[in-house]
Design a protein that fits this description.
The protein has 121 residues and is an all-alpha fold. It has four helices and no strands. The chain has one domain. Helix 1 packs antiparallel against helix 4 and helix 2 runs antiparallel to helix 3. Keywords: Membrane, Transmembrane, Transmembrane helix.
């Protein structure tokens, strides 16, 4: 297996494709991972971590939008209030969380650290 740190960084940054079209954050890293997982060092593990985080982000974003929808419905039903900007705020916060996470892990990869996308408590 050959070592290719720039490809590892590309694999990580490919998750930002969701900014262009939703679900590309899963498709592009998956395709890169599948193509290079057997011939490039550390791609198999990093690809699983990137895809795992992106799937978790998709699910968490979905449930966050559903909670916002329920909050909007409850506010309108009980108080007659329409919470303008709620969905935009949720969109911005979830996208920002993903971009910051990918950016942080990109910095770790540039420093040569491969222990990215690990939960540290």
């Amino acid at each position: 297996m050959r070592s290719d740190p720039p490809f590892l960084q590309l694999l990580n940054l490919s998750a930002l494709c969701f900014l262009v079209f939703p679900f590309l954050n899963l498709l592009i890293p998956y395709l890169l991972w599948r193509k290079h997982r057997h011939d490039t060092e550390h791609v198999a593990e990093l690809g699983r971590r990137v895809l795992g985080f992106q799937m978790l982000w998709q699910v968490a974003s979905f449930f966050t939008y559903m909670m916002a929808l329920l909050l909007q419905a409850a506010a309108f039903h009980y108080f007659g209030v329409v919470l303008t900007g709620l969905f935009l705020a949720v969109l911005v916060l979830t996208y920002l969380a993903n971009v910051v996470t990918v950016g942080y892990n990109q910095l770790m990869l540039r420093q040569g650290r491969l222990d990215v996308y690990r939960i540290r408590l």
